[in-house]
Amino acid sequence: MKLIKPLVIVYIRFSNFKEKMKLRIFLFLPIVIMASCNKSNTRYADSCEEFNAIDLQLLNTIESISEKYKSEKLFLQHFKNSQIYWIQYRDRQVRALYPLKKENYSKQYGESYGLCKCKELTKLSKIRLKELERWLSEPNKTEKCPNSIM
């Protein structure tokens, strides 16, 4: 049985079609990854469920940041690019950690490949969520370096 959770995909407005397509491609990757999660192993399913929940939190946080900073066009442009690059980093990090094809891991290690992959995706997503939450928190008044956090 496949685990496919409905996702609320946050649509961030872009100024041109090429940027819209880039974002759609990179937002689609987590759906493909989640669709590969198999419920036959409870720990495996739990890890994928946790990733689904963190991914949804990430999307909601991105939406909140976009809303809070909607008048800051330059910031939003760089923020959107950072999200695209982060997704690329996350996916490449997982590929570097597990460089063999899925079938090779399944043959050698059984179901643990999916469990480990979901755990790694969850770990990286939690780190990113913490990074993003700083834009929603109160700015540090004592910080001497000016930045985009309002």
Describe the structure in your own words.
- This is DUF1311 domain-containing protein.
- This protein is mostly helical and about 150 residues long.
- The chain has a single domain (about 15-135), classed as Up-down Bundle (Substrate Binding Domain Of Dnak, Chain:A, Domain 2).
- About 65% of the residues lie in helices and about 0% in strands.
- It contains 5 helices and no strands.
- It has helices at about 15-35, 40-70, 75-95, 100-110, 110-135.
- Helix 1 (about 15-35) packs parallel to helix 3 and helix 2 packs parallel to helix 5 (about 110-135).
- The N and C termini lie far apart (about 45 Å).
Features:
single chain; mainly alpha; Substrate Binding Domain Of Dnak, Chain:A, Domain 2; elongated; disordered N terminus
Report the sheet-strand fraction: under 5%
CATH topology grouping: Substrate Binding Domain Of Dnak, Chain:A, Domain 2
Give unreliable regions as ranges.
1-14
Q: At the first level of CATH, what is the class?
A: Mainly Alpha
SS field, number of helical segments: 5
Structural class of the helix and strand makeup? mainly alpha
Order of helices and strands: HHHHH
The strand count comes to: 0
Biggest sheet features = none
Task: Using the CA coordinates, give the radius of gyration.
Answer: 17 Å
In terms of quaternary structure, the protein is: single chain
- What is the average of the pLDDT values? 78
Q: Under the CATH scheme, which architecture would be assigned?
A: Up-down Bundle
What's the structural domain tally?
1
**Outline:** elongated
Helix content: 55-70%
- Tell me the distance between the termini: 45 Å
Domain Lysozyme inhibitor LprI-like N-terminal: 44-132
Protein name: DUF1311 domain-containing protein
Organism: Marivirga atlantica
InterPro entries: LprI-like_N
